[in-house]
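Lecture 7 notes: from sequence to structure.
We start with the chain below.
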Amino acid sequence: MRWLVLAMIFALSVLNYADKSVLGLTAESIMNQLHLNYNQFGVVGSSFFAASVLY
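Predicted structure tokens for the same chain:
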């Protein structure tokens, strides 16, 4: 049972890292589509990071 939990935590950590990496790569297009400036996108990125740490 503990190996299953460890595997699930590992998979979620990898997924979390991939999500943050993709967000950084697509930042410019996201900002253009949602009409965000750098400060607003910083708030969005910071809240995404904070939410991913608190899970």
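Points to note: The mean pLDDT is 85. Helices lie at 2-25, 27-34, 38-54.
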